[in-house]
């Protein structure tokens, strides 16, 4: 018997699927500050197409969000992403996996952004 996801929370299977993909953890670690897909691709040294696929999965799972847009060095508008969580705990002791998360707060994002300026 599977539990229905809580309002605003993604299905645990979606989260597990996104986390189980190669490079997802690296993208989440690198996206503690706002970054474009190209910057994430360069930082992690993965192909840009793979990076976009992982970003899409992570956004769908609610672990990464589009924070805004900025101009690239080439003058194109690009999406900027930041992770929405700092920790995820997965519990396999029941019939279906359950997870809990430690969400990033706006205050933490602002403090981190100020350190970069």
TrEMBL record:
Q: Which InterPro entries match?
A: WH-like_DNA-bd_sf, WH_DNA-bd_sf
- Could you name the domain of life of the organism this protein comes from? Archaea
**Chain residue ranges for the region called Disordered:** 96-117
Spans through the membrane: none
Q: Name one Pfam family in it.
A: HTH_20
Query: What protein does this entry describe?
Result: ArsR family transcriptional regulator
